[in-house]
């Protein structure tokens, strides 16, 4: 039976179980075919609100994809200021060079 959440009989929300958190952590740390992490994908999709959660789940902030780009490189290339700032606050290196020798800071064109 599906519950109507206006129904007083609906179960109380509960914190996630450890197994669910472990599964979320594994998924968050996974990489796709080009080596991108969930951080890369969240930045590409403009989903800046996911970044703090992914960082808390242990996604490596300076993980690189096949092109040597970190999520910060992608945020810089897109001009995504909020994503850029959140990643820097999470420990991303604005001076890290990709395979083309580009740094996020230079791609963005401003000092974070």
Question: Could you write a compact summary of the structure shown?
Answer:
This protein has 112 residues and is an all-alpha fold. Helices cover 42% and strands 0% of the residues.
Describe the structure.
The structure is a single chain. This protein is mostly helical and 112 residues long. It has a domain of 74 residues: Serine Threonine Protein Phosphatase 5, Tetratricopeptide repeat, CATH 1.25.40. The protein is 42% helix and 0% strand. It is built from 6 helices and no strands. Helix 4 packs antiparallel against helix 5. It is globular, with a radius of gyration of 17 Å. The chain starts with 17 loop residues before the first helix and ends with a helix. The N terminus is likely disordered.
Q: What fraction, in percent, of the residue positions are helical?
A: 40-55%
Distance between the termini: 51 Å
- Outline: globular
Measured on Cα atoms, how large is the radius of gyration? 17 Å
The tally of helices reads: 6
Residue runs with pLDDT of under 50 for 5 or more positions: 1-5
Sheet/helix structural class: mainly alpha
What is the fold-level CATH name, i.e. the topology of the domain at 35-108?
Serine Threonine Protein Phosphatase 5, Tetratricopeptide repeat
The main sheet comes to: none
| Percent in strands | under 5%
SSE order in H/E notation?
HHHHHH
């Amino acid at each position: 039976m599906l519950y109507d959440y206006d129904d007083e009989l609906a179960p109380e929300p509960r914190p996630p179980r450890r197994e669910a958190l472990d599964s979320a952590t594994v998924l968050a740390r996974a990489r796709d075919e080009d080596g991108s992490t969930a951080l890369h994908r969240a930045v590409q999709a403009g989903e800046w609100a996911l970044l703090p959660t992914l960082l808390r789940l242990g996604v490596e902030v300076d993980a690189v994809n096949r092109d040597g780009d970190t999520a910060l490189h992608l945020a810089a290339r897109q001009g995504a200021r909020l994503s850029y700032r959140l990643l820097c606050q999470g420990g991303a290196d604005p001076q890290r060079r990709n395979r083309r020798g580009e740094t996020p800071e230079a791609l963005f064109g401003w000092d974070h």
